[in-house]
């Protein structure tokens, strides 16, 4: 590290390169933290973790016993082990006894992306609550038709304040905080929606993964999804080839069309070979565009039955540059999709089993090189491009549900069914700290012994 | 082992023998390989070599006649980089050298079969149906000519199937039932409207596959330290499966249920704890 600092001083390496090298070396040495601990105040499995996006200081956790807690991860509440281990207790806890608290498990707790004054929780009691952080009162309440599996708000949104909610109902609902009402619903899934994420490149694009195995992209300004990911459509390599070889496959025309993923709806709708009503047995050709006029062009995609996974899509994560999407399914496969072409990049992540009954929350490092995925009782760090397991984090006693990567400090927070929130951080050798502490002590003794 | 590699030489000429269908199998294989161009068989990919080797090692089953196929997990066990395997399989599939089938045993099982073997299997089934005096087997011709050549995926929708078959002639529902009865198309629980391509006559082999897996895993789990030397394990015979131990070992190691550890006295196979 000192060599790199010197290079930076001399101007041999640029500041970006310098900082990325330091963070890469820190990330590769992540292990169970020996100087930081979070004292979990939950009596049920931790389902959702998020560090706020503005300051990176407060960790919000939602658990199965209907408790929500916020922890300050920068300042410890007290010290233990002779001042070496920092313990972080929760700043406040909201539980079932709260007058407007949730009654059943909380599946998702997220911060309001603009500041930490509000946070949103979604629970199995069919409600989404918007809380004021300082007074811990419910500001707004939305009732959903089914258990809420996931809520999400776009972190880059400038013109809307919509909460997207995925429930066991087939429709994705958008709730508006500004007006307190539902904005609109997105239909197309054939079963509940277990995971959803907003795109990190466009404030109007939402990605949802359903219990039917389909992954759909929605532009909320239009009806219907403009893209459905199909696991059999694949590309070899990170970027799709420039000249697509003409395949005799019927899907070749659709591949060419769907490569311009975010363009006009009518062309987009033909991106599937099965988009026909069952009563007509006719040749699929370009004339089919004129044949089905009765259906709104945006709703043609509801006939598209392509699946991204052979089971439930349990987790989704869009990389920060918005170019790739990582999806986890109950078929124990992790797939990396190229968002622009809608193809499977065929990266094979070595996972033997993934949790299939509950949704999992994954994390991706800032430069999109590492993916942190909870795999049963461990969390694993995969190299995104080759699919190799870089590191396995064993520490939880039971299944890990969620993980959050804090890019500022290169720390990983994981929450599991064993009610614990574990911190994984780059190693700081204890001996250094002890020396520091001793030096401090020694200094005071010296001062006392100085004679004038 | 060397002998096996020598036997593999003629199989590298797969691409050519497809055109020269008249070439009988009894011909001296080494000679024929010399007459084929080097250019076509110059470079090999790891996956292709592994596929050919495993195809040659496919166990011979007495009662059932099935052409050799390789499971995708077996490929993962022999080649370190799984992404490379996936990508090479994809490019081989696009070149129509092989076909992939989704199996009904377990969640993500796929079988890989060379296209010639698949066509041979279909031939065998058609001949058996002819012997039973089933007439009007034209749908199989249409299937071979139109559907297999153009649809390279593992599944096909009802509409698309009808439209592809109608390139040969008028399609009737009974003909699609014929295809299903022959075992070329099956329906899975995932989606009612989709037909999945399948290898005919493979039912008993699949049953043997899942039972053999269970037997091997339970055998190893019952041992004191849940492990065994690969050399001794290889020699054991499985009671419930017609497929040999090597097939099952490769499959379970590739899918992650078993792992191998190198020790000074050889490889040890151990049950992987998750």
UniProtKB/TrEMBL annotation, chain A:
Gene3D superfamilies: YVTN repeat-like/Quinoprotein amine dehydrogenase (2.130.10.10)
Biased composition (Low complexity): 250-262
GO biological process: proteasome-mediated ubiquitin-dependent protein catabolic process; protein polyubiquitination; transcription-coupled nucleotide-excision repair
UniProt region (Disordered), positions on chain: 238-271
Keywords: DNA damage, DNA repair, Repeat, WD repeat
Keyword DNA damage: yes
SUPFAM superfamilies per the UniProt record, alphabetical: WD40 repeat-like
Cellular component GO terms, alphabetical: Cul4A-RING E3 ubiquitin ligase complex; nucleotide-excision repair complex
Superkingdom of this protein's organism: Eukaryota
WD repeat start-end pairs: 39-74, 99-141, 186-221, 306-347, 393-425
Protein name: DNA excision repair protein ERCC-8
Gene name linked to the record: LOC105159102
TrEMBL record, chain B:
Residue ranges, annotated region (Disordered): 1-34
Ranges annotated as spanning the membrane: none
MF (Gene Ontology): kinase activity
Keyword terms of this UniProt record: Kinase, Transferase
Family affiliation: Belongs to the STK19 family.
Alphabetized PANTHER family for the sequence: SERINE/THREONINE-PROTEIN KINASE 19, SERINE_THREONINE-PROTEIN KINASE 19
Protein name as annotated: Serine/threonine-protein kinase 19 homolog isoform X1
Protein's organism: Sesamum indicum
Gene that encodes it: LOC105163428
């Amino acid at each position: 590290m000192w060599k790199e600092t010197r290079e930076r001083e001399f101007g041999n390496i640029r500041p970006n390169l310098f900082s990325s090298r330091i963070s890469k070396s820190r990330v590769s040495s992540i292990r169970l933290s020996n100087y930081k601990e979070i004292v979990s105040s939950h009596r049920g499995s931790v389902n959702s973790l998020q560090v706020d996006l503005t300051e990176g200081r407060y960790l919000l956790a939602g658990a199965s016993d209907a408790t929500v807690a916020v922890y300050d991860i920068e300042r410890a509440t007290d010290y233990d082990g002779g001042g070496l281990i920092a313990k972080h207790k929760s700043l406040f806890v909201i539980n079932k006894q709260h007058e407007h608290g949730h009654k059943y498990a909380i599946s998702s707790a997220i911060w309001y992306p603009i500041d930490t004054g509000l946070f949103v929780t979604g629970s199995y009691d069919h409600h989404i609550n918007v809380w004021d952080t300082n007074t811990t009162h419910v500001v707004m309440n939305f009732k959903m038709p089914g258990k809420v599996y996931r809520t999400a708000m776009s972190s880059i949104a400038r013109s809307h304040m919509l909460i997207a909610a995925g429930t066991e109902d087939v429709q994705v609902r958008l709730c508006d905080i500004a007006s307190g009402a539902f904005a609109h619903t997105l239909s197309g899934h054939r079963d509940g929606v277990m995971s959803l994420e907003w795109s990190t490149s466009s404030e109007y694009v939402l990605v949802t993964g359903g219990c039917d195995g389909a992954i759909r992209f929605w532009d909320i300004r239009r009806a219907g999804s403009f893209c459905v990911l199909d696991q059999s459509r694949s590309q070899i390599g990170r970027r799709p080839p420039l000249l697509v070889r003409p395949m005799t496959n019927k899907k070749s025309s659709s591949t060419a069309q769907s490569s311009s993923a975010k363009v006009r709806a009518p062309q987009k709708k033909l991106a599937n070979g099965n988009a026909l009503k069952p009563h007509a047995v006719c040749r699929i050709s370009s004339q089919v565009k004129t044949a089905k006029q009765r259906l709104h062009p945006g709703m043609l995609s509801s006939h598209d039955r392509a699946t991204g996974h052979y089971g439930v899509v349990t987790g989704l994560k869009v990389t920060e540059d918005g170019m790739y999407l990582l999806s986890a399914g109950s078929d124990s496969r992790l797939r990396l999709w190229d968002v622009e072409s809608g193809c499977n990049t065929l990266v094979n992540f070595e996972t033997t089993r993934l949790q299939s009954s509950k949704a999992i929350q994954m994390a991706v490092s800032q430069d999109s090189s590492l993916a942190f995925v909870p795999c049963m009782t461990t969390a694993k760090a995969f190299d995104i491009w080759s699919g190799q397991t870089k590191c396995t984090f064993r520490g939880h006693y039971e299944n890990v549900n969620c993980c959050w990567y804090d890019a500022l400090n290169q720390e990983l927070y994981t929450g599991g069914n064993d009610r614990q929130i574990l911190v994984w951080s780059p190693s700081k050798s204890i001996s250094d700290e002890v020396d520091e502490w001793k030096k401090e002590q020694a200094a005071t003794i010296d001062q006392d012994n100085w004679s004038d | 082992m060397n002998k096996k590699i020598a036997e593999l030489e003629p199989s590298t000429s797969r691409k050519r023998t497809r055109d020269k269908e008249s070439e009988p199998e009894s011909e001296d294989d080494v000679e024929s390989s010399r007459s084929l161009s080097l250019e076509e068989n110059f470079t090999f990919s790891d996956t292709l070599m592994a596929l050919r080797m495993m195809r040659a090692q496919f166990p011979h089953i007495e009662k059932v006649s099935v052409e050799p196929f390789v499971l995708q997990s077996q490929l993962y066990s022999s080649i370190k980089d799984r992404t490379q395997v996936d990508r090479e399989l994809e490019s081989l599939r696009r070149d129509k050298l092989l076909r992939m089938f989704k199996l009904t045993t377990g969640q993500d099982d796929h079988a890989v079969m060379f296209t010639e073997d698949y066509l041979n299997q279909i031939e065998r089934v058609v001949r058996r149906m002819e012997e039973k005096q089933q007439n009007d087997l034209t749908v199989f011709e249409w299937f071979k000519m139109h559907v297999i050549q153009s649809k390279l995926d593992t599944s096909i929708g009802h509409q698309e199937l009808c439209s592809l078959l109608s390139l040969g002639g008028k399609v009737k529902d009974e003909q699609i039932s014929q295809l299903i009865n022959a075992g070329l198309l099956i329906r899975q629980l995932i989606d009612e409207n989709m037909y999945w391509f399948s290898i005919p006559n493979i039912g008993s082999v699949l049953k043997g596959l899942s039972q053999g897996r269970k037997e091997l895993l339970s055998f190893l789990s019952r041992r004191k330290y849940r492990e065994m030397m690969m050399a001794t394990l290889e020699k054991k015979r499985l009671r419930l499966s017609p497929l040999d131990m090597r097939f099952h070992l490769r499959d379970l190691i590739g899918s992650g249920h078993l792992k191998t550890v190198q020790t000074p006295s050889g490889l040890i196979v151990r049950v992987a704890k998750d």
